[in-house]
Amino acid sequence: MFNATVQSIRISTPKITQTCKSKDCLNALNINAHGYRCLSTSSCLHGKVVPRKKPRVVHEIAGLEPITYADRIHYVPGLAKPTFPEWDRGWKEPRYYKSPKLEDMPLHKDKPCYIFNQRTNVLEGVRQALWLSKSVLIKGLPAQILNLAQDPVNQIENQDDRVQNAIKNSRLWDTTEHRPPRERFCPSLVHSLLHLCDSLQGTHPKLAKRILADKYSLAATWRRGEDMFQVRGQNGLLLNSMTPVPVVAGDELIQSTADQALETFYPISPTIDLQCTHVYQEKDDTGFRADYPFPHAHTLFLMEMGNTPKLYPEQLRAKMLMFAFGNALARAQALYGKDPGILEKPIVVQSVATNGRLFQFVVFQLNTTDLQSDSGVKNLAWVDEDQPLYEFAKVRPLIKKKVVQVPAGLSGYEPNTFKKFLAFYLHGAA
């Protein structure tokens, strides 16, 4: 039995040496005829972590000059290591670039700035976004959009069948895998739904005056209390229009926001989870040139894909609200200047987010750019959350205890969710 054990270990030794090709691993196992095991392994095999060498501390004594081996041009034991002045090449070498200290950078400022970007995951979710944008929340969607969704004139021919085919194409027909990755089927589904919505150009000619923009960079700066905030960075797929989105709330509703108090979440700071930096530029930019023929942001589409940070639905809705607010604020400052005040004509920006199954809808109306204080007229935000487009889309059926729990194919289709998606797209063109 012992000989059989030795023989099995000898057989497994070449497998170890094949998987580990380093110089130390070639002598991983050496078994002699007496059965003694001689393990000669490196730290990568037995899990030892080589301790990091401590840097040598060179003590400088005032009045004494160390004796170095600089004149001999080679290392001499017992003599100090020489130090030479930094060599100036006369041109910039990116491999040897050394960043200056933060205090020495041209954009350094004493007052910090709190930045909301596409990777921000705020703790308080929508409540924190409402405080940052000085907004009042209204549950559900505006009546104008709901009327568009229910109007049979705005429906596509064979709408439900075509939407279900778009879902099947992105989830079932476009892959040979058991479960397609989210970064593949989520953009495919959104672009297929947008293509369906764009097929109504024959009955709605204003749809031809729109364009989709991807990978544009946004920058919007404002002051809230004593702090400075920014929304900046790339943030999804933006549908731009030649004409602005119609105003959703009337003057009575806008003026009534002055009496409403903003919800706070004390003792948590409103700046929690925001990027704090002292090196920044006070910039306001829509991401497009001044002569761009489609200057008005219509709808922002956000997709929760696998290569982006995973956000819970509450944090995803906060991200939608903040970037819709950032697009509206940048456009307002381009139209009316940077002086804070109530806008003559409010600016409306819509936002739609999805993970491939659940859809989130946000409508934001910017009424004022006076965001420093909590008093006065406030902005408005409508949120419709967690609207499923379907329940399951399985390549193979889900079977438990020989019982089919979920059949293969598409099941649980919700037509009302696409009606809202279509109403968002038709808003301002119908």
TrEMBL record:
It holds the Pfam family PDCD9. GO terms for molecular function: structural constituent of ribosome. It is found in: Mitochondrion. InterPro entries: mtLSU_mL37 (IPR052482), Ribosomal_mL37/mL65 (IPR010793). The keyword Ribonucleoprotein applies. Its main location: mitochondrion. The keyword Ribonucleoprotein applies. GO terms for biological process: translation. Keywords: Mitochondrion, Ribonucleoprotein, Ribosomal protein, Transit peptide. GO terms for cellular component: mitochondrion; ribonucleoprotein complex; ribosome. Belongs to the mitochondrion-specific ribosomal protein mL37 family. This is Large ribosomal subunit protein mL37. It comes from Triplophysa tibetana.
